[in-house]
Amino acid sequence: MNKLTEAAVEVLRDVGYDALTVRSVAKRAGVAPATAYTYFSSKGHVVAELFWRRLAEEIVEPDPTLPRAERVAVVLRSVSLAVEDDNQLARAVTASLLGSDPDVEHLRVRIGVLIRQRLSSALVADTGAPADESLLEALEMLYSGALVRAGMGYETYSAIADRLVAAANLLLENR
C-alpha cells in the first residue's frame, strides 16, 4: 500500500484532484489496476488515506509539561498545518472528506477519533480529571470549520492556524 500512496502523492501533484484516478495511481506505482482497487475504491478513498497517514504522523501527543492552552494550540496547529505545504493535497482532502463515498466514511471517523484523542489529552486537567466534553466539542467545531474555510481557499492554512488558536484561547479563558 505504501507504493500506491507514494504514487498517489506524485499523481496528485502532477495532475491535480480532478484528473487523479485509481488507474493513474496504479500505473505510476507499477501495479495492475486490480491491485490498486483492492486497496482503494475511489480517488476520494486514496486522498482520505493520504490525509489520514499525514495526520497520524503530524499530530503528536501533547506535552503534559506545557500549560493547557499551549497543549491545545500545539494540537490545533498540527491539524491545521498538516497539508499546508501541499496545495494539491489540501484541495483534494476537502473534496474527498466532504463527499459521500462510503469508503471515505471509515477514514473520516478514524481522523475524527485521532484528533479528538489528541485534543482530549491536551485538555486533561493537571489533576487528571477527564476533559470537559462541551469544551472538547466546541474545539472540534472550531477546527472542522476552520479547515473547511482553508480548504475552500478563503485563507491560508497558516493564517487559519493562527486564527484557530486565538479562537481556542477565547474558549479556554472562559472555562
UniProtKB/TrEMBL annotation:
Residues annotated as domain HTH tetR-type: 1-58
Q: Which residues bind DNA?
A: 21-40
MF terms in GO = DNA-binding transcription factor activity; transcription cis-regulatory region binding
**Do you know which Pfam families this protein is assigned to?**
TetR_N
InterPro entries listed in its UniProt record: DNA-bd_HTH_TetR-type_CS, Homeodomain-like_sf, HTH-type_TetR-like_transc_reg, HTH_TetR
Q: Which UniProt keywords apply?
A: DNA-binding, Transcription, Transcription regulation
Does the entry feature the keyword Secreted, yes or no?
Answer: no
Q: What is this protein called?
A: TetR family transcriptional regulator
Native organism = Williamsia limnetica
> Taxonomic lineage per UniProt?
Bacteria, Bacillati, Actinomycetota, Actinomycetes, Mycobacteriales
